[in-house]
Amino acid sequence: QAKKMGRNTVCFFDPAIQEVALLRATLEAELRQALVRAEFSLYYQPQVNSSGAVIGVEALVRWQNPQRGTVSPAEFIPLAEDTGLILPLGRWVLEEACALLVGFAAAPATRELHVAVNVSALQFRQTNFVAELLAILENSGANPTRLKLELTESLLVEDIEVAIEKVIALKQHGVALSLDDFGTGYSSLMYLKRLPLDQLKIDQSFVQNLLHDSRDLAIVNTIITLGTTMGVGVIAEGVETAAQLDLLINIGCTLFQGYYFSRPLPDQQLHEYLQRHVLA
Ligand code: C2E
Ligand code: MG
Ligand code: MG
Ligand code: MG
């Protein structure tokens, strides 16, 4: 029947579309099971200063499914947002990050390290987000000043006044705040004016071609100057080569994260890395 209608007609039973919907539904169902089956794990990527000393780590979630293998967060975070699953998942990530902080606090060499956690828009927009976060911190015994939340500009736009209130409340409790993927979202200097941020995180897309694209260099230079002048820290993400690092140091960047230093590491490997780079 569909064939008879020819190639250019809209077909309501397009098997290709049906297949996409089915694949998505299957992925969604598996994602729901994943929390119960403990298929999520956190990897940690070191953040370093210009002397190469580790100052903290960013927690990055991974999904290991027996059939699918490792699924990238770029694939499942959007789906987890659509389905609301990001709420229990985000809570779990915060609990894990706090447990790591408690571990760090127990040893003099790691006591000062912070853990950065990505927060999704849906999670941040929950009315009780701040209260829930404070409860997680209190239950874990983690030091709030060692927890850093990575927020994105897109997460702030929906209701800027409410967002500012939340950020100020978090800040008052000592939680550190970083603006992730800076420069790629609905960038507004108003956020910088009104939010008590601790850090701007230069998006990796600007770092990638820094040596060969004068526009990227101009943007990175401006972000560093802006942050430095305002007394807000600046970290560059996606640093992959020594040449990128040298250039970034030359233009005044003081904090770095990227494959050049380390890929995101599972718990055990992180501890081995820290043995070599912090506890040495
Ligand atoms: P992001 O927060 O901007 O994290 C940086 C991403 O860049 C990570 O990808 C990291 O593995 C990758 N990366 C780090 N260094 C380099 C480098 O030198 N070169 C390149 N090419 N890439 C580098 P990942 O782990 O796949 O995470 C992707 C995104 O998924 C994150 O971007 C973040 O937005 C989101 N995400 C990850 N974990 C969580 C989480 O626990 N909660 C939420 N809400 N989102 C998360
Ligand atoms: Mg991040
Ligand atoms: Mg980022
Ligand atoms: Mg990014």
Automatic annotation (TrEMBL):
<feature type="domain" description="EAL">
    <location>
        <begin position="24"/>
        <end position="278"/>
    </location>
</feature>
<protein>
    <submittedName>
        <fullName>EAL domain-containing protein</fullName>
    </submittedName>
</protein>
